[in-house]
Amino acid sequence: AYDFLKSHSAVDSVEFAVRMMEDNTLFNAGTGAMMQSDGIQRMDACIIDGYRNKGGAVAQISGVKNPIEVARMVMEKTQHCLIVGEEAQKFAYLNGIGRYVTVTKESIERWLKIKEDTHYGTVGAVAIDMDGKIAAGISTGGWATSLPGRVGDVPIIGGGTYANEQVGVSCTGHGEKISKAILAGAV
Ligand code: GLY
Predict the structure, then answer these.
(1) Bridge partners of residue 168, in order along the sequence
(2) What pLDDT sits at residue 153?
(3) pTM assigned to the model
(4) Can you tell me the distance from the alpha carbon of 76 to that of 90, in angstroms, rounded to the nearest whole number?
(5) Neighbouring C-alpha atoms within 13 Å toward the C-beta of 175
(6) Whole-number Å distance between alpha carbons of 35 and 110
(7) What digits encode the pLDDT tens for the residues 78-103?
(8) Which of 7, 43, 73, 159 is 20 to 30 A distant from 175 in Cα terms?
C-alpha cells in the first residue's frame, strides 16, 4: 500500500488498502465478514476525500466483493453521502460491480461459535499523498449478535471515519459508543 501511495492519490490509496483488507478473510470486512444475528451478512463502508470535502458510504450491503468500492462510487457518481441495503446493491450492479458471495465456510463457523460479540476486525485506512491531500476509509461486517439491520458508526461520516484538509481518522471498536461520541469528527 505504501508503494501504491507513491504514485496515487490519497483517495485511491485508501480504497486500495481497504480493498486488500476486505479481500483478506482474517478481517471482519468484505470476504469473510461477520453475519448479523439472523445469519445474513450486511456490510457497511465509507470513504472520505478530505481535500474535496466529499464522502460516500454504503450500509447493510451484501452480494458485492468490496463495499469500499461501492462507497467510492456513491462519492464519485452521486450527489448523496449514503445508500443502504438492497438499493445499495442495485446501485453497485447498475454501475458494473459483479455479484459476489462474501460468506465463507470460516465466516459461518465463526458466526456459529460467537455467543458474546467481540466486534473484531473492522478495517480502516488513512493516507496523505505527495500533494498533502488526506483521505480516510473504513469497512465492516458489524457484529454477530446485533439485530438485523443494525448500522453502527462505519457509514456515518464523522462517526467512524472523517477527513478534511488537515486530518484523517478511522476508528475501530464499539460502533454505538463511537457514534454517540461522534468520535472521528471530534478531531
Ligand atoms: N465499529 C464497527 C461497528 O460497530 O460496526
Answers:
(1) 163
(2) 96
(3) 0.95
(4) 16
(5) 25
(6) 9
(7) 999 999 999 999 999 999 999 999 99
(8) 73
